[in-house]
Specification:
Layout (H helix, E strand, L loop, with lengths): L2 H23 L12 E4 L6 E4 L22 E6 L3 E4 L6 E4 L1 E2 L6 E9 L4 E9 L13 E2 L1
Antiparallel strand pairs: 1-2, 3-8, 4-5, 6-9, 7-8
C-alpha cells in the first residue's frame, strides 16, 4: 500500500470514529440515570432538582368515581363516554367517562332511547349555577 493510500485510510477511519463518538455522547445514545437518582438541571437559585421515578411492579389500578345525576345544572350539553358495559343481569349498564371537576362539570341527566336492535344512552352535563364565579381548572376526573 502506498504512503498516500495509508494516510487517506487513516484520515477516513479517524473521521468515522470521531463521528461515532460525537453521536454517542449526545442525543439518544446518552445514558439514562438509574431510577431513584437525583437529577440536577442548571445551577444557582434557578436550578431544578428532581428524582428519576422507579417503575412499579404493577400498573396502577384506576378506580372511577361513582356519580349520580344532579338535575338543574346550567348550560347543559351532551358529552361523550369512553366505555359502556352491560351488567350480568342484562338490565344495568356501567358507563365510564372522563369529565372536569365539580362545580364546573356536573352530570345533569342521562337519556336512554330504546330501539328495535339497540339502546342509545346519552350523558348530559353542565355547571352548577349556585357555585357563583369559580375558577374551573382543566383537570380530568374518571367517573
Amino acid at each position: 500500500m502506498s504512503r498516500m493510500a495509508t494516510i487517506s485510510l487513516a484520515i477516513a477511519v479517524t473521521v468515522i470514529i470521531g463521528a461515532i463518538a460525537a453521536s454517542s455522547a449526545t442525543g439518544s445514545g446518552a445514558a439514562t440515570p438509574r431510577c431513584g437518582t437525583t437529577v440536577t438541571s442548571g445551577s444557582g437559585p434557578d436550578a431544578s432538582i428532581g428524582s428519576m421515578p422507579c417503575p412499579g411492579d404493577e400498573p396502577p389500578v384506576v378506580h372511577p368515581q361513582v356519580v349520580e345525576p344532579t338535575p338543574g345544572m346550567a348550560d347543559v350539553h351532551p358529552i361523550a363516554f369512553d366505555t359502556a358495559k352491560v351488567g350480568d343481569d342484562d338490565r344495568t349498564v356501567t358507563i365510564d367517562f372522563v369529565t372536569g371537576v365539580a362545580p364546573c362539570s356536573v352530570l345533569d341527566h342521562v337519556d336512554v332511547s330504546y330501539g328495535a336492535d339497540a339502546v342509545t344512552i346519552t350523558l348530559f352535563e353542565g355547571h352548577d349555577p349556585d357555585a357563583g364565579m369559580v375558577a374551573c381548572p382543566a383537570i380530568a376526573v374518571f367517573e
